[in-house]
């Protein structure tokens, strides 16, 4: 039985410790050691809703417990000696020996294994469990009588494993005690050669002068640290002989034991001075030395070192770079670093140069050396090996060119194309700057950085290149709209982000360009579109526009309906190639057109117009006479999606109920059946309306409410309990004693022209106040055949009572409700409310965990414990009369 419960606790305690590791770190496997033996499970513990879950079957079977599974009722019954555990999957209540136990998280079936929560078993245990965070080992031991001797370890061995000149050089291994159930931990003690150590002296050594080793079920191997000390408190160092002892420390009052010593070992340092691990990374995008981050491991002994020097060498020349050349490099061509006593990381400066004297720049491959400078003799300087090569990436754009593509006499005539930077990690956007050459013979980065946001075109970093026709509202860098007959050059500004913000890069100028019209035609203006009917075809779409101001050379207009899912942009070339069956022709008569299309109208791809497709509309002006075959394309209309205006409907079956007693929105449950067709419904809004302020509540009122509870369209119905912060439509927190009606608003999807729809009202509901929890009375005691029997009169109202708890308390001890709530379950008797006045056997232990014994005077208290909807937790009775067994 003891081993059974020990095993269950092990799995439960592993999980929270397991998940303390960083999310991206490799997870160390958890091992479970029970009285020195490792337990194997085929399903590891898991975390569910913040609670740890452990496989029940693996634990019981490890101790030959009988397991019975009822597939029909989804119930598992486990029997081990005199303990029976019954758990139903999905239930928050289980039983241990016919006593009900509440679970924070219900039992669950995971990969064919029954998983139970920690709380289910942890409160029923009285076993000792240890956790080693470093080794990820849980140790479980059975308590043993005090005063038992532990055994000493054997095979204590020392090894010199490194050359730091301190405790990191020393490794100790030993054979663990065969039976570790009595062992609390081990202590590794280092003693100078020539000194000896006995058990009493070992036990007196302070914690700062030994290394602790937890029980893991395996033979330990201990690597000391730079701070490790001898038993005398001295730092471990080279050129000194040492012996190692291991003290086995017993649990509680169990006796400890000291091992024999290892053989003597003298730590030696055989390494010549060396700078190691020179690393170089490209950490920015300034296009200079600030992009280089250099790190390296300092010399172990810096006694004679005054500083370090960092040399950046072109990769093509690095093989010839040696100590003599390093000593001859002038100070302007290396970076000086002060020694700090720690390993160094240095970001170079914008003025940093390579050893040839050239400023560090993008596109050049470099290797880096570090040199330790001897304060008295340059011949003793120490030069590192070369780093791996690094080439700083450039964020500048390339292949910039501009073309005149249309004849609008504005920015739509100008197309700008360029290739993005190879590395956009630190670029937030590009800015297209159109510069009139009559004002700028040259254009600087400073001027580019100061251009107003209204006077450039921003381009995202998406993709590897950009080819963009500017808009009709595009302005040059001085704020003037683009137009024909002006000479321009275009620049691209790469805008930095993150720690490099402000260090932007300006491209070279494009070729100069002057925009010209090829003929005297112009595009239509004031283009607009509306959804006017519900036929589900072109008859739903009205197109309106103002004709060209001069129609002398215009023969007709073509209305082009373009599905946005196929065209991110639509060009004059695209428009000229549309088949005659796929546009609507309009004559030049009049100054404006407002036309509803026909049922046979098609988009430019030849598909009939229909609902739920997003479109933009363009109008193409077609030339006549000498301009026949030419055309001018308008800008696109706003996006329109044709929808039926009758497709949003109200919910039905609206009902409200008072379900709990928190005194806020959590008391109010709202249920309703969704609209039969939710195609055009985005969400439902639950509106709680105080009847004292609204004799009626309209759709207009509902549309203007800012305090509501949203419900999604998933499923056929909604049944939701509001949360504590829920407010009525006036913004006041929902509370008891106020009369409300509830409405549900069906909200249409975006771009939908039809109105929202308000449901009918619910019945009036007034949330009731809380029911108080009353204490039990008339607590009595009696003794029957050595058993202490407790009787009491139940609470007058058991509606909110989860259980009663019976406590046996030494009569001289103060005891209140707060004390009662802190007593473990093993130290009181739990009684379920059943409508009658109970008489029950008291727990065998008092509230302090001591066995109830004769010769001691006691009193008995009974605590009424609230359920989840109760007002309070802890209605404590008056005490019984004082008694003695």
Query: What spatial order of strands do you see in the largest sheet?
Result: 5-6-7-8-9
Q: How far apart are the first and last residues' alpha carbons, in Å?
A: 30 Å
Number of strands: 61
Portion in helices: under 10%
Structural class: mainly beta
Radius of gyration: 42 Å
Strand content: 35-45%
- The overall average pLDDT, rounded, is 83
Parts with pLDDT < 50 across at least 5 consecutive residues: 1-26, 121-126
- Please give the count of helices: 9
Shape: flat
Written description of the protein model:
This protein is flat. It has a 5-stranded antiparallel beta sheet, with helices on one face. Strands 16, 17, 19, 20 and 21 form a 5-stranded antiparallel beta sheet that branches. It is built from 9 helices and 61 strands. By secondary structure, the chain is mostly beta strands. Helix 1 (2-18) runs antiparallel to helix 2.
Key terms for this structure?
five-stranded antiparallel β-sheet, mainly beta, single chain, 885 residues, 9 helices, flat
Brief digest:
With 885 residues, the protein is mostly beta strands. It has 9 helices and 61 strands.
Blueprint of the fold:
Elements (H helix, E strand, L loop, with lengths): L1 H17 L12 E4 L2 E3 L6 E3 L2 E5 H7 L3 E5 L4 E6 L2 E6 L4 E4 L2 E4 L5 E3 L2 E5 H5 L5 E5 L4 E5 L12 E7 L9 E6 L7 E10 L6 H5 L7 E4 L6 E3 L17 E10 L6 E2 L6 E2 L9 E7 L9 E6 L7 E10 L8 H6 L6 E4 L5 E4 L17 E10 L7 E2 L6 E2 L6 E7 L9 E6 L7 E10 L8 H5 L7 E3 L5 E5 L17 E10 L8 E2 L6 E2 L10 E7 L9 E6 L7 E10 L8 H5 L7 E3 L5 E5 L17 E10 L7 E3 L6 E2 L10 E7 L9 E6 L7 E10 L8 H5 L5 E3 L5 E5 L17 E10 L8 E2 L6 E2 L10 E8 L2 E7 L7 E10 L6 H5 L7 E3 L7 E3 L15 E10 L8 E2 L6 E2 L1
Parallel strand pairs: 1-13
Antiparallel strand pairs: 1-2, 3-4, 4-11, 5-6, 6-7, 7-8, 8-9, 10-11, 12-13, 14-15, 15-18, 16-17, 16-19, 19-20, 19-21, 22-23, 23-26, 24-25, 24-27, 27-28, 27-29, 30-31, 31-34, 32-33, 32-35, 35-36, 35-37, 38-39, 39-42, 40-41, 40-43, 43-44, 43-45, 46-47, 47-50, 48-49, 48-51, 51-52, 51-53, 54-55, ...
Helix pairs in contact: 1-2
């Amino acid at each position: 039985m003891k081993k059974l419960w020990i095993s269950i606790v092990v799995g439960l305690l592993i999980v929270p410790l397991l998940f303390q590791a960083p999310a991206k770190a490799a997870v160390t496997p958890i091992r479970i050691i029970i009285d020195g033996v490792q337990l194997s499970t085929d399903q590891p513990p898991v975390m569910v809703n913040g609670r740890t879950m452990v496989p029940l079957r693996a634990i019981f079977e490890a101790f030959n417990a009988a397991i019975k599974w009822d597939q029909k009722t989804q119930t598992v019954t486990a029997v081990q000696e005199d303990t029976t555990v019954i758990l139903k999957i999905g239930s928050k209540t289980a039983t241990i020996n016919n006593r009900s136990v509440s679970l924070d998280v219900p039992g669950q079936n995971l990969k064919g294994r029954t998983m139970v929560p920690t709380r289910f078993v942890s409160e029923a245990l009285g076993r000792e469990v240890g956790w080693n965070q470093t080794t990820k080992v849980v140790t479980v031991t059975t308590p043993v009588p005090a005063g038992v001797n532990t055994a000493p370890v054997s095979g204590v061995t020392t090894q010199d494993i490194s050359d730091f000149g301190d405790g990191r050089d020393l490794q100790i291994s030993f054979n663990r005690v065969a039976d570790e159930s009595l062992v609390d931990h081990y202590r590794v003690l280092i003693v100078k050669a020539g000194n000896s150590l006995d058990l009493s002296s070992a036990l007196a050594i302070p914690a700062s002068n030994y290394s602790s080793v937890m029980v893991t079920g395996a033979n330990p191997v201990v690597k000391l640290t730079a701070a490790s000390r001898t038993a005398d408190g001295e730092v471990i160092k080279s050129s000194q002989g040492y012996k190692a002892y291991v003290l086995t420390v017993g649990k509680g009052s169990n006796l400890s034991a000291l091992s024999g010593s290892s053989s003597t070992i003298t730590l030696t340092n055989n390494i010549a001075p060396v700078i190691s691990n020179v690393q170089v990374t490209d950490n920015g995008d300034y296009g200079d030395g600030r992009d280089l981050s250099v790190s390296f491991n300092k010399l172990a002994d810096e006694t004679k070192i005054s500083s370090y020097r960092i040399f950046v060498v072109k990769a093509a020349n690095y093989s010839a770079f040696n100590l003599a050349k390093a000593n001859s490099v002038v100070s302007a061509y290396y970076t000086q670093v002060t020694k700090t006593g720690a390993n160094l990381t240095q970001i170079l400066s914008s003025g940093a140069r390579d050893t040839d004297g050239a400023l560090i720049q993008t596109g050049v491959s470099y290797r880096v050396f570090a040199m330790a400078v001897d304060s008295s003799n340059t011949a003793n300087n120490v030069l590192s090996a070369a780093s791996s090569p690094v080439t700083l990436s450039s964020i500048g754009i390339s292949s910039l060119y501009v073309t005149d593509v249309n004849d609008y006499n504005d920015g739509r005539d100008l197309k700008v194309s360029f290739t993005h930077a190879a590395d956009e990690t630190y670029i937030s956007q590009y800015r297209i700057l159109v510069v009139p050459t009559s004002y700028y013979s040259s254009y600087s980065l400073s001027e580019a950085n100061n251009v107003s946001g209204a006077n450039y075109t921003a381009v995202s970093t998406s993709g590897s290149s950009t080819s963009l026709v500017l808009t009709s509202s595009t302005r040059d860098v001085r704020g003037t709209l683009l137009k024909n007959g002006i000479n321009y050059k275009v620049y691209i500004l790469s805008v930095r982000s993150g720690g490099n913000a402000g260090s932007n890069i300006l491209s070279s100028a494009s070729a100069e360009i002057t925009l010209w019209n090829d003929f005297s035609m112009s595009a239509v203006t004031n283009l607009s579109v509306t959804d006017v009917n519900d036929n589900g075809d072109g008859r739903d779409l009205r197109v309106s526009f103002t004709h060209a101001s001069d129609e002398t050379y215009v023969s007709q207009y073509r209305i082009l309906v373009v599905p946005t899912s196929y065209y991110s942009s639509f060009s004059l070339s695209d428009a000229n190639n549309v088949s005659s069956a796929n546009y609507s022709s309009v004559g030049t008569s009049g100054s404006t057109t407002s036309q509803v299309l026909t049922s046979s109208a098609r988009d430019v791809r030849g598909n009939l117009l229909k609902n739920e497709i997003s479109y933009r509309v363009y109008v193409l002006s077609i030339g006549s006479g000498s301009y026949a075959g030419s055309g001018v394309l308008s800008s696109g209309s706003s996006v329109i999606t044709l929808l039926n205006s009758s497709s949003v409907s109200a919910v039905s079956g609206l009902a409200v109920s008072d379900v709990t007693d928190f005194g806020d929105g959590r008391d109010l449950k709202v249920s309703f059946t969704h609209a039969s067709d939710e195609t055009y419904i985005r969400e439902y809004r639950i509106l709680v309306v105080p009847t004292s302020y609204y004799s009626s509540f309209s759709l207009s009122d509902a549309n203007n409410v800012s305090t509501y509870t949203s419900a999604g369209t998933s499923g056929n119905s909604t049944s939701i309990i509001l949360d504590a912060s829920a407010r009525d439509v006036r913004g006041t927190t929902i509370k008891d004693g106020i009369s409300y009606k509830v409405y549900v608003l069906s909200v249409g999807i975006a771009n939908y022209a039809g109105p929202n729809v308000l449901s009918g009202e619910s019945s009036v509901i007034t949330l009731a106040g809380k029911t108080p929890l009353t204490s039990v009375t008339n607590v009595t005691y009696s003794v029957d055949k050595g058993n202490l029997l407790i009787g009491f009169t139940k609470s007058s109202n058991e509606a909110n009572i989860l259980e009663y708890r019976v406590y046996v308390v030494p009569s001289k001890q103060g005891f209140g409700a707060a004390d009662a709530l802190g007593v473990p379950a093993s130290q009181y008797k739990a009684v379920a409310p059943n409508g009658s006045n109970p008489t029950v056997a008291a727990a065998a232990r008092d509230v302090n965990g001591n066995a109830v014994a004769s010769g001691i005077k006691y009193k008995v208290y009974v605590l009424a414990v609230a359920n989840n909807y109760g007002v309070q937790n802890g209605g404590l009775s008056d005490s019984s009369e004082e008694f003695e067994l």
